[in-house]
Amino acid sequence: MAAHTARMKNYQHIELITETYPPEINGVALTVQALEYGLRNLGHRVGLVRPEQHDESPRHHQDLMLVEGAPIPRYPGLRFGLPARKRLIARWTAQRPDAIYIATEGPLGWSAMRAARKLGIPIATGFHTRFDDYVGRYGAGFLSPWVLAWLHRFHNRGDATLVPTSELAESLAQQGFHHVQHLGRAVDTRQFNAHWRNEELRASWGLKPGELAVIHVGRIAPEKNMPLAVKAFRALQEKRPDAKFIMVGDGPQRTSVQSENPDFIFAGMRRGDDLAQHYASADIFCFPSLSETFGNVTLEAMASGLPVCAFDYGAAREHCKDGVHGRTVGFSDEQAFVKAFVELATHADLKKMGMLANESVQHLHPETVAKAFSRLLHELSDIRSVA
Question: Mean pLDDT in the chain?
Answer without folding.
Answer: 90
